Amino acid sequence: MTLADLPLNIPARILSARLDADLCQRLAALGLHVQRDVQVIRRGVMGGPLQLRVGSTEFMLRRNDARQIVVDILPQAHS
């Protein structure tokens, strides 16, 4: 599943990201990197950006970029 498909407020772990090096570096500075937990807390209308929470940091990410990030829902999110 990609980050763009992740349901709202469901914790997931990032498995991989197929992004260009510059964007990967900027996202890593915000705490978004492989093996980090993330949540989608809001979706922009009409294909707008996603608002993400990583730790205590919240930021927006374009959906096209979110489609390049593979995540796995955390087991405790299923209960």
UniProtKB/TrEMBL annotation:
Listed SMART domains: FeoA
SUPFAM superfamilies found in the cross-reference section: C-terminal domain of transcriptional repressors (SSF50037)
GO terms assigned for molecular function: transition metal ion binding
Lineage: superkingdom: Bacteria
Residues annotated as domain Ferrous iron transporter FeoA-like: 1-73
Keywords from the named record: Iron
PANTHER family: FE(2+) TRANSPORT PROTEIN A
Name the UniProt record assigns to this protein: Ferrous iron transport protein A
